[in-house]
Every structure is written in C-alpha cells, then in structure tokens.
Amino acid sequence: MNSTTGRGGGDGDSPDLVCQLDCVQGMVDALSSVRWKRNQDAVVEISEHGLVLVVEESGCLQAKVYLKRELFLAYEFAAEGRPRFGLSLGLFVDCLNIFSTPGHAPAIEIRYPGPDMQLLLKSVDSPDACIYAEIRTRIPDTVSWDCNFEPTGNVPVSFTVKSAILKEAIDDLEWPGSDIQISLQPDPPSVTFRGEGHGDLQIEFLHYANTDLLIAFQCTRSVSNRYKYKFLRAMTSNIPSSVLKDNRGSKVTVGRGGMLKIQHLVSVRRSSAQHSRGNQQPGHIAYIEFFVKPEEEADEEESPIGDN
C-alpha cells in the first residue's frame, strides 16, 4: 500500500470499475466483520450488480460481503463477465481507515484496475488535500469452494436472534479445542447451544418465553449438529458495534447436511447532507453471510432433516 498526500494519481486506461462511496466507516465495518485473523487473503468479484468479497479457511468456513451498487454514490462498470482479483483483507481495511479521519470522512473513489493491476483509492471531496492509496492485487490461486447450501425442505430450519445475544452466547461457550452442538426442536420451540470441556455448558433460547430475544423461529423437525468452536466464533466475534448498538438480529439457518449459514446486516450510512434531503434508502445495507460445515455431515436417516 502506498498512501500519499497530493493531487490525483493512478488513473488507469479503461478501468473495469470506477465507483464512489461516501461512508468509509460503513464499508470498514462490513469488511472487518469477516476479518477473523491478522493475515487473511480475500477474493473480490466485481459485476454490474456490485462487489462481492469472499474469505475462506480450511475448506470449512466461508464468509461473503455483498456490496450492492445501490450503496455507492456512483457506480460505473465497463468489464465483460465478472473480473476477480485477490488482495490482503487487512491491508484493504487499514487503507480504508486512512480515509476516515476524526471530524471528516471524505467520499472516496475506488478504481480497478490501475496501470499495474492495482486497486486504487482516492478522496474526492477533501478541501485541503487529496489522499491517495493503491493496493497490490493478485490472480486468485483457487476458485472459491461452493458451499452448496440447500434448504432442508419446504420450511427452512432457521431462527433469528439479537446479534449481541448471539455473540455473547458463543463467547460464553469457549472451551479449548471443543465442538459446539446446536440443536433446534419444534416442541417446545427452542434453540440450544451446548459446549463440552472441563464440564458442560448449555445455553437455551425458548421462543415463546422471550420473543424479544428469539425474534423468529422456524422448525418442524428436531435438528442437531456439531461445529468447531473456532469457526462459530469467527462468525460472530467481529460483529460491528453499530449492529450491536442498533439491536439488530442475526439470522441462523441450518441447511441440508448440517451446513450452517449466519447472516448479518450492516448499515452503510449516507452523509448528513444526504440525510437532510431525505435520501436515506432502506437498501443501503451491506449483507454479510457466513457458511460453516458441520464436524460430521448429518445422516438423513438418523437426523430428522428432510423434505416436508
């Protein structure tokens, strides 16, 4: 990464993408939510619909950040197909943070590719100076694995819980090297998290007992699967403080074979000037999805997961 103060710089010929964003912090929150370790590579795919950033680990955990074109002040896409490139996620987040200064967060322009296939960023409305940065990209080594998430039947097995409560529950279940069992049952409608270590710890959410806690619940047959704790923690450990403060919910869905999906929503807020004109749109949300494989895939004859 090179960051300099001065004019312009790095304008490539016929870029695939040129877009502008006026809320750097919202993008930082979204990307930080899938950053579970210091050195982490990501793959970015761009299209006419927006950007998708994908990170993976061990072929068992995958996270995606969806940044739809509606989130941007301007979005010009000129490529054929869906160009993909790899980069350092930590470097990308650190670079974006340069543009978020106390008291002033200028709009930024994102351009790809630069003359040497870099990802280029620069401020576009700073009255005093132009902040410019470039990030080296690479050709992705592999194609992202297909999580192949399929619903368990006509009625999805899912629940929605306050994000802060979900994070607190998983944090409390930490046992070194342990697995976490997640069970759902329809009668009484409940979700149980159970961890084993030096002892057993069980956390239960009852749907009818506290609808403010367990916001929504769908389950017609009992389901139970085990997951590595480190993967579950990665799905919740970096939920942005803005999501926790807004008291939002996270949706958890169990797919066929025990595949687990967790969805978070992160606001990419517009500037105060946009707010004053009443242009805040409900669509200005970054969608975060995590997928994690179970420790052992469920056997459909033994596990009551199937079509309804």
TrEMBL record:
Q: Name one Pfam family in it.
A: Rad1
Q: Name one GO biological process term.
A: DNA damage checkpoint signaling
Q: Name one GO cellular component term.
A: checkpoint clamp complex
Reading the lineage from the top rank, the first entry is Eukaryota
Q: Which UniProt keywords apply?
A: DNA damage, DNA repair, Nucleus
Localization, per the record, is: Nucleus
Q: What is its main location?
A: nucleus
Q: Membrane-spanning residues where?
A: none
InterPro entries in the record = Rad1_Rec1_Rad17
* Family the entry assigns: Belongs to the rad1 family.
Q: What is this protein called?
A: Uncharacterized protein
Q: Which organism is it from?
A: Zingiber officinale (Ginger)
